[in-house]
Amino acid sequence: MRLSIIGAGMAVLVAGAVTSPALADNRFVRELDAYCVAGDGTRHGVAASQDGATNSYIRRPGAEDEITRSVHNRRMVTRWHRQLDEAGFDAMEAIVVSAPYCATERIEEGRAHEVRWPEGETPTALAHVFAAMLAGD
């Protein structure tokens, strides 16, 4: 895994943020992932942990992940969770969409919920928060 940050301790934190589904058995963990998957399977996105650590990543098939720690802002991540709540994210249907597609995934209270849509067709209720997550705003 190629990391664009310094320090072995930070590497563990960053790797955990991108691979957050492994932490789903902890009912107190809150993780977010906003991403798009291209037709060739390349996935790029932003993963955010409950403590505010936010990491941009690119995951190419057959290659090492590229991860960049972008910001550390707990208030921003809390705002994204609130905006997802206001959009009714947890009640949105989880459908299977073939690539290219985009998605938002949230792990909260020991469960994961993902909403996917064809690339360029972001659901209106999620458009603002999805754009903010990808931009790190």
What does this structure look like?
With 137 residues, the protein is an alpha+beta fold. It has three helices and seven strands, in the order E-H-E-E-E-E-H-E-E-H. The protein has a seven-stranded mixed β-sheet, with helices on both faces. The two termini are 26 Å apart.
Into which percent range does the helicity of residues fall?
A: 25-40%
Number of strands: 7
Arithmetic mean of pLDDT: 82
State the order of secondary-structure elements, H for helix, E for strand: EHEEEEHEEH
| Class by SSE composition | alpha+beta
Overall radius of gyration: 14 Å
Unreliable runs: 1-26
| Strand adjacency order, main sheet | 1-5-4-3-2-6-7
Largest sheet: 7 strands, mixed
Shape: globular
Number of helices: 3
Give the termini distance in whole angstroms.
Answer: 26 Å
Give the amount of beta strand, in percent: 25-35%
Task: Give a brief description.
With 137 residues, this protein is α+β, with helices and mostly antiparallel strands.
Provide the fold topology:
Blueprint: E1 2-3, H1 8-18, E2 30-37, E3 43-49, E4 53-59, E5 66-72, H2 74-86, E6 101-108, E7 111-118, H3 124-135
Parallel strand pairs: 1-5
Antiparallel strand pairs: 2-3, 2-6, 3-4, 4-5, 6-7
